[in-house]
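A quick aside before the break. I want you to see a complete sequence-to-structure record at least once, exactly as it would be stored in a machine-readable document. Don't worry about memorizing anything.
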Amino acid sequence: MRRLVLPLVTILVLALAAPVHAGSAWDPDDVGGGLDLRWIGVHANGDGTVRITITLWDAAGPALLGGARSGVSVQMLGDRRFEALVRTKPSGGYRVWVTSSTGRQVYVGPARHPDPHTLRFVVPRLASRRFIAISEYSVEGVGFVDRAPDSGAVRL
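That is the input. The structure line, written in tokens, reads:
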């Protein structure tokens, strides 16, 4: 009996630590500008949070994510609609702001930009089941918008 306890406890701990659900979608290299979306991955963690990773086709620095007319957001859809917006902080670093469809801020937290092509952040799940990444970028009066996936949504 004692020989079974340690393996069972190990399996239980690993099962609880692993993401509960995951989904992802690729997006083609189809938009000009600097924020062309490549991939969105969503992992629902067992603690009621969601880890979202977005990759871009081209390298994006702080200037692209901090401009008045540029940024990357994720629409979080379920019983209610929320939006997570990633921007550069004036003091440096990155933040994610989550707002409801009525404009009420429900969460502010850190976002990571571990390499020039990747954004990563964790937000409360908020009963969201479908996720769509949107990027907006404007240069010299020309606007670029991308959506990933191009149709539908990443589902958990």
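Two observations worth writing down. The first helix runs from residue 2 to 17. The first strand starts at residue 21 and ends at 26. We'll return to this after the break.
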